[in-house]
Amino acid sequence: MPVFKMMSRACLAVAAVSIAGVAAQPAHAQGAGTTFFVTSTGIGNGGNLGGLAGADNYCQTLAQAAGAGAKTWRAYLSTQATAGKAAENARDRIGKGPWQNAKGIVIARDVAELHGTNNITKQNALSEKGDVINGRGDTPNRHDVLTGSQPDGTAFVGLEDRTCKNWTSSTQGAAMVGHSDRIGLRDDDASKSWNSSHPSRGPDGGCSQNDLKSTGGDGLFYCFAAN
What we know:
Radius of gyration: 21 Å
Largest sheet: 6 strands, mixed
Number of strands: 8
Shape: globular
Number of helices: 5
Oligomer: single chain
Order of helices and strands: HEHEEEHEHEEHE
């Protein structure tokens, strides 16, 4: 009898460990399958993201913490042409797709669909943790997402800054932002745009953390797995 009890207890312990392992597995698998997210927090220095390299590294770091670090991550950000350096288009940085959020919902099958009729909404534009990002009507509103891009995902031309000096300025300049919840002040295409709604602005010059927060943002940006 004692031997039977010991075996029973041992079996129960093994079963408990197995159940715990099974319960933990879906969350890990879910994170590993993520190929798109909105950063849960900004870098914290306004539009100064450390350039594209700094933004990409931040995407990679957040993805790693969420269990999706085996992929190569890129920030959906454009840069503008400067003396001796060509512009870079956000749409050309993020791979071919398809992309899905932390819940397994497909955002877009390819680059064309992403910049056409995609599945980005407040409920689907989730953070790397699978959380919904605060939008219009929430406190605080954080739906302004940095992109520096035109609606088709290409960089702006001309001298007017739309990238906070190619993501190196936290004072002067401006950044084009999109609305992750697809809601704005008006019922027009710009207000509903996920990637090109309006430029940042504010008393510090347009690119400080306070400036970004003043119009409903927090320095967040989109991250895509490029492979």
